[in-house]
Amino acid sequence: MKLSEEVPEIKAIFGAPLVEKIDQPWVKDSADFITVIDDYGLKIEITEIKTRTSVQTASREYERVNRVNAIRHGTINATSPILRDCIANRGEALQLLHHSLTYNSDFVRHVVGSAHGQIISSVRVRFSASIRDEYAKCLEDLKNLILPWAYDRLADRVPEDLLQLAETSLKDLVGGRYGLVQQFCMWRELLSLPKPLPPLRRIIPAIHAEWNIKKTASDTITKLIDGSRNQIKPPSAYINANTLVSARTINYALVTCHRLRQLFSSTPEKSESLRDFRNAANLRFTYKQTIKSATQCFRSMIEENVNRESTAVNMGNKTEEPNRRVRIQGELTSNRLLLPAPYTSKTPNRNLKQRYESEDESIPKEIIERRKNCKGPAIFIVPQKEGEKKAPKKCFVCDARTNWWCTGCHHYFCMNAKNAIKVGDREPTFAYFNTLNPEEPIVCTQLFCWHQSHRAAFGDERMPIP
């Protein structure tokens, strides 16, 4: 449900750009939306939207709303004791205060929604001028402590102590010494530009701009060819590297003919812009129409040539020979390019068990022998970092998910009787072993996937257990 449908006081909603406070340039902000409301006259307030994407976070938000009996779209003061109940996250509450200071707005709306676009909670917070002034003093103190070299005077270089931090503790954040210097130079050039600054989407890295100049519209040509149902494709029996490249070259030639046709059919009057010229050209002839015209032209040329030859033969004139066509010497063969995974328009077979059983030629013989004569042992893979979950892999035998890995053949195998995440059925297999215990000379045990695939580790089916 849209926010404007639930709050009739909202008259308009606009996207918020990246802004900077005029008298305090170190205060910058990028809110979600700027809303115009009718509250005894038109006023501007800032709207911050948070989305609970997962089921767990959305459930916790619904539970919190029901627990505190929050009023939907209500208005509270920033000093109210129920602010913590309405906005549980301190970081989100501080973000609302930052919006209020940057835009000098008394009201900031906090909206929480689900991944399906439903509004879970909404509250409007009022920030007084005294709270905004105290927060502005805190930001100014932080600026004087951390960034005095950037705002108090015109800086031409980054201090050396900050460059050392960029190489050590802040390397992942700023990209190292050179990353920090590059960002600083870009920021200094932006400060010299007249305000307001252009949108950030117009700032393109130099390497990308150079590519856009030199690529000669290759991306648009590829999109034009791939989006057409009339592109030339070799038959599936003759697909290899050479035929694919040849077909692509012919398609590029047809696109060139299409552009030339549009150019030569244009009127001498000058268009207002390049965009208007392209739109008019596309209205005159589409790529599909050009392909259809080229097909008819080639068909008529072939039919004319065939009729001319048949006419010359029927005349029986031995002295006049018909126009000879260039013929390819030799035989046409359909030799396919031998690759480990040939082009078949299907998903390649990734079942390791079937590949080993069929003795796939792409697998070296040493690897196959290692798999047949492997004696393990099997180990249980655990995550290397605390709190990290190790994703289980597919079992080599039954495709169930497991974390047991063989150190000999380097495959995953099941080492337990039951598995919750499982693909297919697994038949239980049992074996008998001799023991040295006179009270129980023979024991029966179940063989799991690792045991079934590692007979070499046990020798005969019956072997003594020490």
List keywords for this structure.
disordered C terminus, Lambda Exonuclease, Chain A, 4 domains, 3-stranded mixed beta sheet, 15% strand
CATH architecture designation of the largest domain: Alpha-Beta Complex
Rg measurement, Å? 37 Å
Classification by helices and strands: alpha+beta
Low-confidence stretches: 326-349, 420-424, 461-466
CATH top level class name of the largest domain: Alpha Beta
Number of helices: 17
- Percent strand equals 15-25%
Largest sheet composition: 6 strands, mixed
Mean pLDDT: 78
Strand order of the largest sheet: 1-4-5-7-8-6
Stated plainly, the CATH topology of the largest domain is called Lambda Exonuclease, Chain A
What is the number of independent domains? Answer: 4
Distance between the termini: 71 Å
| Approximate helicity band | 40-55%
CA-based shape: flat
DSSP, total strands: 15
Structure report:
The structure is a single chain. The protein is of the alpha+beta class and about 475 residues long. The protein folds into four domains: about 140 residues, Lambda Exonuclease, Chain A, CATH 3.90.320; about 45 residues, no CATH class; about 70 residues, no CATH class; about 110 residues, no CATH class. The chain is built from 17 helices and 15 strands. The strands form five sheets. A six-stranded mixed sheet has the order 1-4-5-7-8-6. Strands 14-13-15 form a three-stranded mixed sheet. The longest helix is centred in the middle third of the chain and has 29 residues. The protein is flat, with a radius of gyration of 37 Å. The C terminus is likely disordered.
